[in-house]
Amino acid sequence: MDWAQLWEIASAPDNVPIVALIVLVPFYSWYGLRQSLANDRLIAQLETDPQMAKTHHRKTQPWRPGWEREVHVWPYLLRIEFLAAIIVTFILMVWSIALNAPLEEPANPTLTMNPSKAPWYFLGLQEMLVYFDPWMAGVVLPSLILVGLMAIPYMDANPLGNGYYTYKQRKFAIWAFCFGFLILWLSMVVIGTFIRGPGWIWFWPGQTWDHNRVVFEANRDLPDIFGITSALGKGIFGGIVTLLYTAVTAIAFHKVLTWNDFNRKIYQRMTLVQYLTLQFFIITMMSLPVKMIARLAFRIKYVWITPWFNI
Amino acid sequence: MPEDLKDQNGSKKGLTALLEEVKSEVKVLKEKGVEEAKSLQDPEKTQLYKSIFRVKHDDKPRSRALGVLSNVFLHLHPAKINRDAVAYNYTWGMGGISFYLFVVLTFTGTLLMFYYHPSKVQAFRDILYLEHDVPFGKLLRNMHRWAAHLMIITVWLHMFRVFLTGSYKKPREFNWVVGVILMLLTMLLSFTGYLLPDDQLGFWAVTVGTNMARATPLLGHEGPFGPELGMTAYNDVRFGLLGGSIVDSNALLRAYIWHCIAIPLIASVFMAVHFWRVRKDGGISGPSPMMLASEIKEERKL
Ligand code: HEM
């Protein structure tokens, strides 16, 4: 265990935000989940007790008759904003006095940095480069992430959970978002920071970053495993496998969407366009973990090889 | 008064009379002054105060409401808001903190611009100068850097909160879209700033980043169908981003202009829209009363 190496990475000033992230994200996930579960308990109560559902104010926040529904922004909100500004300024001051922004040698195109890393918030994209070619990892997938995010409100046909924390009423939406945000995006930022060393080689935390290490892992393409050698054969075979993946994922996802009565009810509300868009983005999103497993566990580089692009 | 004096032919008596007169005048002035000084104990009654604030500062509901509504900085807020929405546990304050960090970054960034030249000869030296000679220069640079990192974190957490509370649902769909654009702009702001110190870190990060643009389908010279469409290293998107085929002085200048002028302006416009829409969509979404599955209404079919 090379603690010095681990400390060197964790204490690099530019990595401090990631250390903060590792603390803040689990905290806020817990914080949100706690409120969701509290609300869910109340929802369960209201569902079994129609009389209560009629009279209850339907929030977990305390409520007494006679309390005003609204409060003045000045001072009840402004004082919080003012306090927040002071706290943030204080944190920034301490942080800026304690840690210096990094400054390396002057830019030198003839001296490559190794590892040469993107800023931490783009490490997810750089990590995707391991599993996809640059046109996919650097251009197509980031664009699809953005468009997919923007499409969320238009794909989500579930009217419940509008303006309050809940898990029970939005299980699928929450799982899908957390999978994308926490598992795919944030964990790749963490992998990119703590695990990827010189040559973008996988070093477990605590393993020394050996600049001379070379990994001799022969990556194979899927058609090779099946002994397909002709270019045309590879193109057709890859196309079929990709289609197969799409079909299997689509069917599995359809099963999720029609899993129980509630899911079916929401599914009924979806338009065809909503359904197809959602399918498209789920299939695209799931291709990342599938390719990660193919690569990390089976050393498979490409599935589909054509003269113009490889996937 | 001087006319009166002349009549007396400048006698001593005239002088005393003059003295008396001055004394009484001074007394009146003094009384006036004391009175005015007393009135300053209540500055809210002064013309200056009234001209600036226009509203009485007391705890009458009307004054409280007007105090917010008649102030250009505060009028982004409504006068009153849902009592549960002010609790920290609903919004986590992340949107507001993101905005505050944007303000901090604008302020520190403007100060940094006084010392920075976006040229290959000067840029790196300017950073050294900032760190070692400019009073508080190091603190300034550090604050700008860390506030930028922090803003990315708070924007992500803000998005996470908005998702968990389902606040993107009707009628706030479009504000979520504006938010996604703001998130992209925040990350681009950070990224363009990374190159400006002109050191190894920024140079290689931007090299790695823009190399991906080579592979843009159709528009990059190494991307699918790029070469077929006549793309070379000298006319593709990457060339357009960098102002050249390598990360050099043109790229530095372009990053500088995007970072200091273009993206902040665009982001400000989107923020204005974002805040406007929060209000127009009916204020902050909750915590709102919970809806039960049995209450879902049939969707009206087109
Ligand atoms: C520069 C970045 C951003 C700033 C300064 C900002 C600021 C704010 C502020 C001050 C609010 C009021 C409530 C709150 O503080 O939570 C708000 C609400 C909102 N934001 Fe943002 N935001 C940003 C980015 C985003 C992003 C990335 C998204 C989503 C993808 C988003 C979506 C929304 C939505 C839907 C609301 C309404 C929430 C509600 O009514 O509960 N914003 N934003």
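The CA atoms of residues 201 and 215 of chain A lie 8 Å apart.
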